[in-house]
Amino acid sequence: MTEPLTPRSADDPVRSVLFVCTGNVCRSPFAELLLRDRVPGLAVSSRGTYALVGQGMERQMAGQLALLGVGSDGFRSRQLQVEDLSADLVLVMSGRQRNLVLEESPAAARRTGLLGHLPELTAQVGDRPLNRGAVAAWTRASAPAGRDIPDPYRRSEQAAAQSARMIQEHVTALAALLRRSGTEDTAR
Which of helix, strand or coil describes residue 55? Predict the structure, then answer.
């Protein structure tokens, strides 16, 4: 993703979302593919802070995604690059990943938040459209403790199912916010 040529304002809707996890084979691709399915036309991508570059989605998480009717064929893990952080909304799976993102690009601070902190964004926005200003205000608030999405990599099927449920809950809420804001119409 690259920064648009025209200046963006706080009132502009969220048009691009980047999900970040560690290896980019479990949590962030699950979120990417699910949101892409739920909000067609939105620019959605995912990356890893220590990506297993070129690998497909991890088998158990791909299975969890398939249970929701979303395929993972063709997905390949990608390493996070500074230019990726120009997305309107960057959602990480852990506080540690947020710290790594901000070390790479301090300018991304007002666009980067914890996926598990999304209920506070939903409450803050209320019935208003989700825009860049709302995202910037939300990122200023501290995320409550215990909101990381656990990494299911090389763990049990139960761990994959738990992470998938958590991600699905947050992505479903985000998709509703984006659709209500007309993002799928403006992103095309």
Answer: coil
| Model pLDDT, residue 18 | 98
Q: State the pLDDT at residue 4.
A: 46
Residue 142 domain flag: yes
> What is the tally of structural domains in the chain?
1
- 111 lies in some domain: yes
Among the listed residues 15, 21, 26, 36, the single catalytic one is 21
**Using an 8 Å Cβ cutoff, are 176 and 34 in contact?**
no
Q: Which domain holds residue 133?
A: 16-180
Identity of residue 130: L
Asked if 21 is an active-site residue, the reply is yes
Q: Which of 15, 26, 27, 147 is catalytic?
A: 27
pLDDT at 127: 85
26 an active-site residue?
no
CATH code (residue 47): 3.40.50.2300
Nearest-angstrom CA–CA distance, 170 and 122: 10
In which residue ranges of the chain is pLDDT below 50?
Answer: 1-6, 185-188
